[in-house]
Amino acid sequence: MQDIGKSKKMLTASELARLLNVHINTVRRWSNRGILKAYRVGPRGDRRFSRENINDFLAENPAAEQKADR
Prior knowledge:
This protein is α+β, with helices and mostly antiparallel strands. Helices cover 51% and strands 13% of the residues. It has a 3-stranded antiparallel β-sheet with strand order 1-3-2.
């Protein structure tokens, strides 16, 4: 299993999309459906994703992890 890292920095939707090799709209859709936990920040409600939640998501979704390994 890929470990996203121990850094406290949260990832933006675009950073996560690049990491998982998926379109940013896929990340947004997963967030909207509750598949991937996102935190909303700022007045626009931008999404941020914690590395811990990303690691949990990858553990539960092996297909997403395979894309991230490419």
